Records
---
Amino acid sequence: MEKENKKTFLNELHKLIYRDNKFYKVWRFLTSGMFHFVKNVWYFRKELYEYQKWDWLYQISLLRKGLELHSDYLTEHGHDDDKIKFKKINKIDRVVYILKCHENDTFIELAEMELGYEYKHDFCELGNNKLSYLEKEQNAAIYKKSLEIEDILWCEFLEIIDGQDLSSVRSELEWERKFDGSGIKGWID
């Protein structure tokens, strides 16, 4: 029995040494690495097509797409208890919504819905100002509210990504009650 253990240990050690070989690395790339590369290019095709290294919105779109794919994976194949899994999925979906708001710059629309009146556009021709004083005040209020909403959503995004402090939790049952699904480190399945 001891000989078998030594033999299997040596076989596993040989496999580890073999995996460091350049021929194995090339073979592995051609058999599985290329497939994963093409699959990821297909998943992120729209984001990669539009990507510009000078603009931060494109990094946000890559993060959003990755989180959408992860949320779909957790929904179909998640191993956690359903209660925990759906808490994670809800937080991931909330982060995706916040990132979409930043991508599409929908804060004016959110402020309009909250305040109850629309932003009036002033298309001036040769200095003719067609907006009344009240409309200018409403536009200023909408713009100010949109900046507040943007700040609130950024703070919420950072809180969800950071997660909650569960260091004082002593039992698994207490952890399940207190866990709200936030924390990007806990989204791994």
---
Amino acid sequence: MLTRTEVDAYKRPLDKICEGAKAQFIRTFTALQNQTPEKIRDTLLEVTPAICLAYGKAAAAIAAEFYETQHDKHRDTPFTAQVADVAPVEQIQASVRYAAGFLFEGCLDTTKDILAGAVSSYVREAANRTIAENAVRESAGR
């Protein structure tokens, strides 16, 4: 059973990565604010998946390391955790397209807020899937 200390030790770096991804997105978005809605949308369609991929891989790596550490504490057999994939580019771009609709209504903050939250969610999802997929792999190997 996990202790609160172990959970917190896992959660702290994961939270930092999610906040870093969100901050990177907000910096990028802020730099684009004087562009046309089309230009902002098109740039975000490229940049947002790249941010999610970079930070999502880091989050998944932390989750894999955490999983292996917990496995080693409770099992005698070796296990190498695998990192899960980050959400598909098409899924991230669908979020961008949805949120970009608000750009054309002059609601830049709405677009920024929706996508900043989505970026953080996609990054955290990579970590969550890493834990879940390794639990399934480990159960199948018993």
---
Amino acid sequence: MTNLRGGFLARVAVTLVALAFCTGAVYPPIIHTVIVQWIMPSEYTDGTPLLLSAITMTRIQWGTCADDKPTFGLTLGEYFLPGPGITLGVDRPYGKHCFRFAVRVGSAESEFSETVSVTIPALPRPPSGLTIVGNPNA
């Protein structure tokens, strides 16, 4: 009798965990990797040539978008890449995210680039109402 009771409790525990996932009580975080790519500047603002080797850092900020243009809103974080980086993988959850970039030569930093945005769609909720229709061991 103990084995049957233990098996029954195990099935109930599995069912409760399954129902928790199906009803929205527990969701694992869903993160998407966004690949951001850009072209480095080849000249200073006065038109003189800028060598890639002179770029000491690339600064990438990400945050909210203030409107649909896109306009950069609130800064949520930033990356500092040594030298002239041209690509970066960024893990982001669903929603709309804006990015902007700047480069540094020595201690002088450029203005930020134009803003680019990406919208990661939300995933559908899983099915609900999970039931076991028949149990061959009952």
---
Amino acid sequence: MAPRPRLIAGAVGFLALMGVTGMAGAVEFDPFRSQAVDRDRGDYFAEAGAPTLGIDSKCNDEDECWPVIRNGQGEVLREYGTEDVALTLAGARYRDRAYLLAKLLPEDDSTRVFLIDNTGDATSVDTAFTRHFDQGGPLSLGDSDTPALRDLNVTPEENLLALTAEGLLTITPAGEVTDRRPTPATLTHGRIQNDLDGRQAVIGVDTNNEVWLSNGQQWHRSGVRLAERGDRAGVLAAHPAPDGTTLGVVYRYVNPFHKGLYVMRAGPGLERPQGGPVLLSTERNVGFDPAIHPTDKGYMLLATDSSNDQRIQVEVPKDRLGNLPRPEAGSFPDKEWWTTFWAGGGVQYLGWQANSRVKARGHGAGTRGDNPLDLLFSSLGGETLLEDLRAEVAELQRAVGI
């Protein structure tokens, strides 16, 4: 995970050690007046009456439990043994149907991958997927290349939509690739999400940190580039618009004093991408596990404020996407910091591995993303390194107003 408030404390401690004081108050850019809420993307589907489907468990009086697949009415569609393991690989909710792509690990150590809907209809999925999810690594499908899988979704036509490092593939459960939409650049991360009516939206980040958007047919630049050392897992969301454009939301971390939530829109009919920051804060850390969906007035953005362990909503009017307010120049420093300062025992570069662990919400929630960021540091020494240190101290002083 990108450095948390302890990084700020360490930096301020270093400045105090150097005799620099006078820290300014927190700075926040919040033009649409964010609010704390108990809400998530699933509420968008629930309020429209979309069916649900998921893996649950049943237990007997002896506390023996086993996995089941249950729909939103509580009906058990599939039931397995106490030694079996069932895992969710992907799922999609539409106005009148819900789908679950599941992996079953029976007691005999075989592996099955299958697609099931909320009525109980199920279809086995080709062994290429079975091998991928059983063994990990690249996705191998017939004559296609073997790029790494970034995300999966299920279409209303009961096909699989696979986002790989090299593009978007539409694949039948039998393993036939029926459509390919190559990406303009190799993707390192991405997500596929749909609306109630079956439209698809894709957001991805390439190896040069650029964010791309797609409506499932065409790829478009979003106008947003992430910082080299910012988070990637658990910070992306997308939603399709009826006009064929795609909306995206991303948490962008530059440094401890420049981090927050960005919205973007791109696609057919737009001369250039729209969007920008809608919530930046030097104190709060808002942006993990984001979501976006339409409202009567515009678009609702949701994200976790990890500083206060709560969900935050920002509603952006539709007519403001092309003309968003901008933060005051100089309010948030743009330089990406590579140095972390700590007081005590001398000043030195530190080495650690920061992990971005994003918790899923709801029943059976687990870790949805884990993104190791290798932060490269070495002992202080040499004129070049000292010059970098002085430059970053000066940047820090400007950021906190001292």
